């Protein structure tokens, strides 16, 4: 294992990826229930997969495929090294058909690798040994990666982590923190890094400004779980700098439970660096044919595990559109692959009144002048329970009563071709962080008929 592998020459990275891919294919042909059956059905032999150049011969699988039979994606580890036989923990990701989250299993072997990946990610993000992390990820009923891996990342970096424990997962959990207590905890402990879901971090910053809390030590905010446009980054950065350090900035990650770490920025707009190219191989493929696309071209992002012993996924569609580069990063000098441009959900576009719109465009407009607090974009039928009724496009806005809503409505119409109905609303009616720590910015109610 090479600690600083992301900064080694591309040829070194590629050599290690090929070696690990070969070992993973050996394991999948002999010990992976799902792929062993798939390969047999396809008539695919181990000798057919000689290198990563042959990866296109493997099937691309979806979250639905994985969620349908998650136990079939666990390696049979009897006889392997002891670390591979010990079930370290279970995180959870996308829901199954029965509504329960899908388990993602890590062995001790996997967790030790996860620590390496997370340390590299923090080093890419310019974390210092004098930093401390405020873990703003919520406590949940089912364990999931963000809360637990934030703690693990701080541990492997040997820096303090403070977890205020927002979230109300169960009547049996008695230690939840409301928004004001979270703000007070950050202020009292002099945390230098805020780490959490974008919408909750934004609300913490808004409340801290209202309370005039001391966030003077906060220099970084690590945000994840939601797309962050340039306007959202600007909004968050301005809020941080108004209540804290003038050089504070936002660091975005493109993360997935199936990684247990995020692809991260070394500085704003530098791209999302793969911190563990020895563990993860990414492709960008055509969403229809699943054929690999040329470097720099936007398509469906696909993940292959190169060195795991618990849950193992090959050519797993993450459900996002993205573009990939293997050129050296001009900012930090790393040679690891990185996503360029913010990945977006494959299903982000929606048709309203015959117009295909991107809700992110509306989000950027609402954030542009700094007058809007919380907001929600709603598409519904004009007549409820009538599937033949015309569409209605509404915006719920937390804004000052003096704000000109007609000006906002017209700017949205010019941008997307559909004029919204705008309604003023209380902040907590749009997003109440004491009930959920992830805002629903876009809601399409038409599918509920």
Task: Provide structural commentary.
The protein has helices spanning about 10-30, 35-40, 65-70, 80-85, 110-125, 145-155, 180-190, 200-210, 230-245, 360-365, 405-415, 425-430, and strands at about 85-95, 100-105, 135, 160, 195, 220-225, 250-255, 260-265, 270-275, 280-285, 300-305, 315-320, 325, 340, 345, 350, 355, 375-380, 390-395, 420-425, 440-445. Helix 1 (about 10-30) crosses helix 2 and helix 5 packs across helix 6 (about 145-155). The chain has about 450 residues and is α/β, with parallel strands linked by helices.
- Kindly estimate the percentage of residues that lie in beta strands according to DSSP: 15-25%
Mean pLDDT: 92
Indicate the low-confidence ranges by residue numbers.
none
Q: Briefly note the structural class of the backbone.
A: alpha/beta
Kindly state the percentage of residues in helix: 25-40%
In short:
With 449 residues, the chain is α/β, with parallel strands linked by helices.
Present the secondary structure layout:
Blueprint: H1 10-31, H2 33-42, H3 63-68, H4 82-85, E1 87-95, E2 101-107, H5 108-124, E3 133-135, H6 145-156, E4 161-162, H7 179-189, E5 193-197, H8 198-211, E6 220-224, H9 230-243, E7 249-256, E8 261-264, E9 272-273, E10 280-285, E11 299-305, E12 316-322, E13 324-325, E14 338-339, E15 344-345, E16 350-352, E17 355-357, H10 359-367, E18 375-381, E19 391-397, H11 405-416, E20 421-424, H12 427-430, E21 442-444
Helix pairs in contact: 1-2, 5-6, 7-8, 8-9, 9-10, 10-11
Keywords:
449 residues; alpha/beta; Rossmann fold; GMP Synthetase, Chain A, domain 3; 30% helix; single chain; four-stranded antiparallel sheet; 22% strand; 12 helices; six-stranded mixed sheet
